[in-house]
Amino acid sequence: MIEKADREEFLNLVQENKRIIYKIGNLYCRDKADIEDLAQEIIYQLWRSWASFDAKAKFTTWMYRIALNVAISFYRKDSKRKDSHEPIAEHLIEMPEEKGNGETESNINLLMQFINELAALDKALMILYLEENSYREIAEILGITETNVATRIGRTKEKLKKKFELINN
Amino acid sequence: MQDINLSEIWKAQDEKLDRTLKLNLYIIDSLQKQKVRSKLGALARFKLVVAILGMVWVAFLGLLIYGNRMQNPYFTISVAIIFIFNVIAVVVYLNHYALLKSINYSDNITNTQQKLARLQVSTINIARILLLQTPFYSTWFWTQQQVMHDPRFWYISFPVAMIFVAFTVWLYISISPANMEKKKWVSRFMNIGMEYKSVTQARKFLVELEEFKNDSTL
């Protein structure tokens, strides 16, 4: 039986990594309702697998695997997942609108838009790269070779760079 | 734009999210208390039930073959062919069950996604293979007597069986996953039932996964 302390530890870890969950949701879904659904699904799957998490392993590596697997599966489906858990009426994510610096804000939106346009697996690759995981960790999470990781990151960065150039010129 | 700038933009977003993003912990607490229900688990149980029912059907067909023992070769051969198709289906469904049981979201991404996509594609292929047994349901009642001496056999039974063969082969070819993209009716036909959903995407995704895994050329 999972103890209360265990539940709290999980809550703290999710809280610490909420940014990652939100960003994955934001990059694999188009509207707010879908982002909420996906974030909820990710947390639900993390909790379901929590008992099998090896405390010696790195939490974020384990979390990326589950979160990205859930996101890619969700992304590939025609319809939203309705039967894995009971729908909850309240909002899981609250993000008050904040007016940021004009140029920074615009760059963030463009970067998110360009990553959003990538194929599902390249999206995962760029998220892991921008979250500063090592090539070795990325290779382990994705199940590909480090050489492949390096090649694809180089190519994808080039693609994003060109898109920014096109916008700026 | 230099590489460092992408990271800087990403980090700028992190700062913003740190300031503004809030998770509703009450909802997470509710999720933790929910009874575990898994779509993959339900699908695995469905596959197992179908495999068990298939085994019962196969055992029944085996008894029919044993009971007849070529007394009427048309009956024995027809039932034997149906038997073979169903044995294949049972094996495939047991394989699907094992595959579903082996899917773990904490495994690496390409492995897990490949398993999920293969499962979708395989589901449609076994349905097509099972279709091929249909004509043999129209030949099991033939007898040597009919074939040799009854003219109605050549006017009715034989043409009906041939129509079945032609229709089944045509359907087998037509409802291929590749045709789903080209022909609307195939796509509609194959979308009947939840198992056939997303087969086209699954096929495309398998190709994408293979390229993703193997592409390391600079």
Tell me about this structure.
The complex is a heterodimer of chains A (169) and B (218). Chain A has helices spanning 4-16, 18-28, 32-49, 59-76, 102-116, 120-130, 135-142, 146-168; one strand spanning 93-94. With 169 residues, chain A is mainly α. Chain A folds into two domains: 1-95, RNA polymerase sigma factor, region 2, helix turn helix motif (Rna Polymerase Sigma Factor, Chain: A, Orthogonal Bundle); 100-169, Orthogonal Bundle (Arc Repressor Mutant, subunit A), CATH 1.10.10.10. In chain A, helix 2 runs parallel beside helix 4. The radius of gyration of chain A is 17 Å and the shape is globular. Residues 78-83 of chain A have low confidence and may be disordered. Chain B has 218 residues and is mainly alpha-helical. Chain B is 78% helix and 1% strand. In chain B, helix 3 (39-68) runs antiparallel to helix 4 (73-102), helix 4 runs antiparallel to helix 5 and helix 5 (109-131) packs across helix 10 (199-214). At the A-B interface, helix 1, helix 2, helix 3, helix 4 and strand 1 of A face helix 1, strand 1, helix 2, helix 5 and helix 10 of B. Strand 1 of chain A pairs antiparallel with strand 1 (22-23) of chain B, so a sheet runs across the interface.
Number of strands of chain A: 1
How far from one another are the termini of chain B? Answer: 20 Å
Determine the strand fraction of chain B and express it as a percent band. under 5%
Number of helices of chain B: 10
Strand-pairing-aware structural class of chain B: mainly alpha
Molecular shape of chain B: elongated
What is the 3D shape of chain A?
Answer: globular
Number of helices of chain A: 8
Mean pLDDT of chain B: 85
CATH superfamily of the largest domain in chain A: RNA polymerase sigma factor, region 2, helix turn helix motif
CATH architecture of the largest domain in chain A: Orthogonal Bundle
Structural class of chain A: mainly alpha
Order of helices and strands of chain B: HEHHHHHHHHH
Q: Could you tell me the number of beta strands of chain B?
A: 1
Kindly estimate the percentage of residues of chain A that lie in beta strands according to DSSP: under 5%
